[in-house]
Write a structure and sequence with these properties.
The protein is an all-alpha fold. It has one domain. 83% of the residues lie in helices and 0% in strands. The protein has 10 helices and no strands. Helix 1 packs antiparallel against helix 6, helix 2 packs antiparallel against helix 5 and helix 2 packs antiparallel against helix 7. It is globular.
Length: 272
C-alpha cells in the first residue's frame, strides 16, 4: 500500500492552514471550537487505534511503559525549550520564533509517529495521518496568525508554515526508513513514545490554550464530535488488521474499553 497519498493529504492540510492565516484571523470562539474538535480526534486516535495496536504486538509491558515514559520526558524537554525561546522573544518583541520552533519540533515528531504507525500496519498509519493532518492545519493556522499579528508578510507566513508542514513528510519518511524490518516490540515502544507525545499535544497545547473564562457547551460538543468521527471510522471503516477481526468475532467493542475511553475524555474536558 502506498502511504504517499495520506502523507500528502496531511502536508496539504498544513500548507492550507498557513495560506488561510493570510486571509482570515479566527476569533477566540472559533479557535476554541476547532481545537476542541482536533483534541477529540487525537484522543480517539490514541485510545481506539494506537493503544489497541500496541497491545496486540504482545510487547513486554516494561518496554511499552519505558517508551511512554521516554516520550513524556522528551515532551517536557520540548516545553522547557519552548518556554525559554518565548521568554526571549517577549523581551525582544520579534517574530514568534518560539511558537515556530515548538511547532516545527512537534510536527517532526508527529511525522515519526506516523511513520511508526505505517511500519506497524495500515490502519494505525491512516488514522494517525488523518488525526495529525487535522492538527497540523490548526497548528499552521495558529503560527501563521501569529506572524500576521507581528506584521509579517504573506510570503514569509506561507513560507514558514509550509516549511513546518514539510517536516511532517520528512519525519514520516525517516521513521519508516529507520523502522523498516523492525520487530513488533520495537514498533510498540515507538508508538508508546508517540502516545505520550500525542497526549502532551492535547493537554498542553490544544485544550489548555483554548480554555476560555466562560464555559461553552459548543466547545464541549466539538470535543466529543471529533472523538465520535474517529470512533465511527475505526468501527465502520475498512478492514484494517487483526484488531478489527477480533472485534468482529467478539461481536463488537468491549464495553469496558468504551467506558474507560469516554471517562478519560470527560476528565480531560474538566481539567483546569
Amino acid at each position: 500500500m502506498s502511504v504517499v497519498p495520506y502523507l500528502a493529504g496531511a502536508v496539504t492540510a498544513g500548507v492550507a492552514g498557513g495560506v488561510l492565516a493570510t486571509l482570515w484571523a479566527p476569533g477566540r470562539w472559533v479557535t476554541s471550537y476547532i481545537q476542541h474538535f482536533a483534541a477529540g480526534v487525537v484522543i480517539a486516535a490514541v485510545a481506539l487505534k494506537v493503544a489497541p495496536d500496541i497491545e496486540h504486538t504482545g510487547a513486554p509491558p516494561l518496554l511499552v511503559m519505558g517508551g511512554f515514559a521516554l516520550g513524556g520526558v522528551v515532551m517536557i524537554g520540548v516545553k522547557w525549550l519552548t518556554m525559554r525561546i518565548e521568554a526571549r522573544q517577549q523581551r525582544t518583541r520579534g517574530k514568534p520564533w518560539g511558537l515556530t520552533a515548538a511547532a516545527a519540533i512537534d510536527t517532526a515528531i508527529d511525522g515519526v509517529i506516523i511513520g511508526a504507525g505505517f511500519a506497524l500496519g495500515q490502519g494505525v498509519g491512516v488514522i494517525l495521518s488523518l488525526a495529525l493532518g487535522l492538527e497540523l492545519l490548526f497548528l499552521t493556522l495558529s503560527v501563521g496568525s501569529s506572524f500576521r499579528q507581528e506584521k509579517g508578510s504573506r510570503g514569509t507566513t506561507v513560507a514558514v508554515t509550509s516549511g513546518i508542514s514539510l517536516l511532517l513528510m520528512a519525519g514520516a519518511a525517516g521513521g519508516m526508513a529507520l523502522l523498516r524490518g523492525a520487530s513488533e516490540s520495537t514498533l510498540a515502544v515507538m508508538l508508546s513514545f508517540g502516545a505520550a507525545a500525542l497526549l502532551y499535544l492535547v493537554t498542553e497545547e490544544l485544550l489548555i490554550e483554548t480554555r476560555l473564562p466562560e464555559e461553552t457547551l459548543i466547545s464541549t460538543a466539538m470535543f466529543f464530535l471529533g472523538f465520535l468521527a474517529i470512533f465511527a471510522l475505526v468501527s465502520l471503516g475498512p478492514d484494517w488488521g487483526p484488531d478489527r477481526q477480533k472485534r468482529k468475532r467478539a461481536g463488537g467493542w468491549p464495553q469496558t474499553k468504551i467506558t474507560v475511553t469516554w471517562e478519560a475524555g470527560l476528565l480531560l474536558m474538566r481539567a483546569p
